[in-house]
Specification:
Subcellular location: Cytoplasm; Mitochondrion matrix; Mitochondrion outer membrane
Radius of gyration: 19 Å
Structural class: mainly alpha
InterPro entries: MIEAP (IPR026169), MIEAP_C (IPR031981)
Helix content: 40-55%
Strand content: 5-15%
Keywords: Coiled coil, Cytoplasm, Lipid-binding, Membrane, Mitochondrion, Mitochondrion outer membrane
Protein name: Mitochondria-eating protein
Main location: cytoplasm
Number of strands: 6
C-alpha cells in the first residue's frame, strides 16, 4: 500500500466510548445468543459459559498478535517517508491502522481461535462440538479487540484463573453464585481494563 498522509488523531475519546459500548453490547446480547446456540449441543451451563469465556480470551489474544504484525509492517512502510519523531510516528501508525481496517485478516484470527479452543482440555473434544457455531461471536470479538489496540493507551481484558480470590472491583458475581464463597469457581466474562484500571467489570461464578 502506498504511503498516504495519516489523519490527525481526533475524536479518540468518542471512538474509545464507542468501543467500550460495543464491548458491553456483546456481553449483554451477543454473548447470550452464543450461549443459546451452544445449549443445543451442550446441556451443562458451566461448560457453555466456559466456552464463551475462552472464546473471548482467545479472540483478544489472536487479535493482538495480528495487530502487532500489522503494526510492524505499517511502521516500516511509513518510516520511509515520515518526517517526525518516534512519538509522532507511533501515533501516525495507529491512525493509519485505524483508518485502514482492511489490513486485518479477521478470518485468519477466527480460524486460529477455533483451533486453540479445539486443543483446550477444559472444553469438549472437537468431535463432540464444532466451535464454528459461535464463529460470529468470535469474529466480532476479534474485530473489537483489534480496534481497541489503536487507542492510546489500548484497551484490553484481564485474564482470570480458576480458584483466584473474588475481587469485587473486577467482577460481578453471577446470579447462581454462592455469595458467601471467597473464591472464583470459573469465569463467565472478562473485565475490560485500560492501563491497569478496570473500566468494565467482568462476571464470575463463586462457589465454596
Amino acid at each position: 500500500r502506498p504511503c498516504s498522509p495519516p489523519r490527525i488523531r481526533r475524536g479518540s475519546a468518542s471512538h474509545r466510548a464507542c468501543l467500550i459500548a460495543r464491548y458491553n453490547f456483546i456481553y449483554a446480547k451477543e454473548r447470550l445468543e452464543a450461549e443459546c446456540i451452544l445449549r443445543r449441543y451442550v446441556c451443562n451451563l458451566e461448560t457453555v459459559q466456559r466456552i464463551v469465556y475462552i472464546a473471548c480470551v482467545e479472540s483478544f489474544r489472536a487479535a493482538k498478535m495480528a495487530f502487532w504484525k500489522v503494526k510492524i509492517n505499517v511502521k516500516d512502510t511509513l518510516g520511509i517517508c515520515f518526517r517526525g519523531g518516534p512519538t509522532s510516528l507511533e501515533v501516525a501508525v495507529l491512525d493509519y491502522i485505524a483508518c485502514h481496517k482492511d489490513l486485518y485478516d479477521v478470518c485468519c484470527s477466527v480460524h486460529e481461535v477455533i483451533c486453540c479452543m479445539n486443543r483446550n482440555p477444559k472444553l469438549p473434544c472437537p468431535g463432540e462440538l464444532d466451535f464454528v457455531v459461535i464463529s460470529a461471536l468470535i469474529r466480532e470479538l476479534c474485530c473489537l479487540a483489534y480496534s481497541m489496540q489503536t487507542l492510546i493507551p489500548p484497551l484490553d481484558i484481564a485474564y482470570g484463573v480458576d480458584g483466584e480470590c473474588f475481587n469485587r472491583n473486577m467482577y460481578y458475581r453471577s446470579f447462581d453464585s454462592d455469595f458467601a464463597a471467597p473464591f472464583v469457581a470459573y469465569h463467565v466474562w472478562p473485565p475490560l481494563i485500560e492501563d491497569g484500571t478496570v473500566i468494565v467489570r467482568g462476571e464470575v461464578v463463586t462457589k465454596k
